[in-house]
Amino acid sequence: MSRQSSDPDDFTQRQRALSRWDNEGGAAPRASILTGEQISIPEMTNAELVALHVRVIALENLLISLLATASDEQLNLAREMAGFISPRPGFTHHPLTVHAAAHMIDLVERSAHFRT
Question: Could you give the CA distance from residue 22 to residue 96 in angstroms, rounded to a whole number?
């Protein structure tokens, strides 16, 4: 699938989407973000953690298979998106986000083994 649009707003949309994830909590409801309300999160059980781990492994492998058939432009875009993972101005890098960016690049590189 190739990118159909060279709309200058594409960059802005990507930046806006990624900025929601800078705090590792981009999926929070908008109301709680605006009010600063803290959401209590129960601890996960070991079974839940194992199930989550299995799902992440499955998703990574699925992503690698999709990246293996991606165009060079799409692979470059995936690498570029990894570069967008950065803290907001005035905040320091969080080790998990730095690791996530490196992991994104690693997934793209691992897909090269399956490219035809």
Answer: 11
